[in-house]
Amino acid sequence: MDQDRRDAAAWAREWQIRQRNRRLLIALGLIALVALIGFMINFTIVHVERTTFRSVEEMRKAMQGRYAIERDFEDIIIEGDEITLTYLSFSHYDRSYAEKYGYDYSGEDSVYEDHVEKWDYRNGVIRTHWMGDLFVDKNGNIRRGDNYYSTFYRTDKPRPEPIDPSTLKTPEGDINTDISTEEEEAFEEREESIEETEDAAEDAVIEGENDVQT
Q1: Which of 14, 58, 93, 179 has its CA 20 to 30 A from that of 126?
Q2: Distance (Å, rounded) from C-alpha 179 to C-alpha 183?
């Protein structure tokens, strides 16, 4: 009887070990499957939605120049490893805006400078110090983050010439003009974007100062 009990206990331990090993193999298999799916998704995104390059130098050379969202009077200019993001003042460049809402004599363009920390040519990503990742789409345009509406289009056109306020019919604005809901939302989104960019730039400066002190 004692031998039977010992044999039963040994069989039970062996069965538990086999079950534990089976669960472990299943878990490892699921992890490998998830990793494979993630790799395939990333591969698809990179090779279907982005432009990739053969080397850092090829990417750097290809990405020089001006990229703009003309309707929003925003642009990115890449010169070497330096990047300048500019929000042009609406009232200084958009004549219809200045006529309707007035010319802002004290207004200035919002200009932010950053530099490229890595030309990730294999994945079509320009990795910057504080602006975040800039993705190069299949047409060679630049997208900030995951927002397709923040696509800066490559252009050979120079920036628009600023308005001479003396040529405006109503430089003080039209008092009868009512701002539409769509325009108000667009202006608010632009202001939020500028504020977020300003905060990111300031945080980068503070971080840099702390690194120097350390």
Answers
A1: 93
A2: 6
pLDDT for position 12: 66
* pTM score of the predicted model: 0.76
Distance CA 196, CA 142 (A): 19
C-alpha 214/C-alpha 211 separation (Å) is 5
User: For 27-73, what is each residue's pLDDT tens digit?
Assistant: 776 676 665 565 556 555 555 689 999 999 999 999 999 999 998 99
pLDDT score for 207 = 80
Backbone angles phi, psi at 70, to 5 degrees: -60, -40
Which long-range contacts (C-beta less than 8 Å, at least 24 apart) are formed by 162-165?
162/92, 162/93, 163/91, 163/92, 163/93, 163/95, 163/98, 163/103, 165/98, 165/103, 165/105
Other C-beta atoms within 10 Å of 76: how many? Answer: 22
Residue type, 94: D
Q: How far apart are CA 125 and CA 119, in angstroms?
A: 7
Bridge partners of 151, per DSSP, are 143
Q: Residue 117: what pLDDT?
A: 97
Start-to-end Cα distance in the chain: 74
Looking up tokens 């504020």 gives: 195
Cα 83 from Cα 66, distance rounded (Å): 10
Distance separating alpha carbons of residues 111 and 103, to the nearest angstrom: 19
Query: Which residue reads 């990229």 in tokens?
Result: 67
- Other CB atoms within 10 Å distance of the CB of residue 36: 10
